[in-house]
Design goal:
Blueprint lengths: L1 H14 L1 E9 L6 H15 L4 E8 L11 E7 L12 E3 L8 E5 H10 L4 H18 L15 H8 L7 H14 L5 E2 L1
Parallel strand pairs: 1-2, 1-3, 3-5
Antiparallel strand pairs: 1-6, 4-5
Helix pairs in contact: 2-4, 3-4
């Protein structure tokens, strides 16, 4: 009986979803259709991890929504100064709650063009990558989505919507989020 209870509890925990909110601040003025496509792709990247993303577009005064972990992502144009020369974005883990990041639209467009993949796919994966940093509150890199520098093979997988988080990164994100949310925000 105890074994059955443990197995049932494990199965329920494994299938439970954690919800997050992501506010997109479109400072770059990207067309709404492109932003929406990128949000849809990025949301799909989190599904296998048991993370449901609630997206919204907001103005520069984006604020957190108190009921779920909230992250704010800026889409920036050429005015953004990047801390690392080859980076497509960066998470500001030392700012406020560590829940803000920005991606560089010109760098994303250049990467997409150089690798012949849709810009929206590269934008989606750049957003997912920076969300990974913010969720875990870590600057660590790994493989897949959390790779420090993407190559042609990663770009090809982005174009096919097949680039994934490494299992250890997914587990770290899920654990970090579950420790932040109340049981009422974990859904079956």
């Amino acid at each position: 009986m105890l074994k059955l209870s443990i197995a049932l509890a494990f199965a329920l925990t494994a299938s439970a979803q954690v919800e997050i909110a992501v506010h997109i601040n479109n400072n770059a003025g990207l067309a709404s259709a492109q932003v929406n496509k990128a949000m849809k792709i990025a949301g799909r990247v989190f599904v296998p991890l048991g993370i449901a993303v609630r997206w919204s577009i907001c103005d520069p005064a984006c604020t957190e929504t108190g009921s779920v972990p909230t992250f704010i992502m800026g889409l920036a144009g050429p005015q953004l100064e990047m801390p690392v020369p080859a980076a497509l974005g960066f998470a500001m883990l030392a700012t406020g709650k560590g829940n803000r990041a920005a991606v560089s639209l010109p760098r994303i467009e250049d990467f997409a063009e150089a690798n012949s993949v849709p810009m929206e796919s590269v934008l989606a994966y750049s957003i997912a990558h920076e969300l990974g940093h913010m969720i875990t509150r870590s600057k660590e890199h790994s493989t897949g989505v959390m790779r420090a520098k993407w190559d042609k093979e990663n770009a090809m997988r982005m174009g096919q919507i097949r680039l994934e988080f490494a299992a250890k990164d997914g587990a770290a994100m899920k654990a970090a989020l579950q420790s932040r949310v109340s049981p009422a925000r974990v859904t079956e």
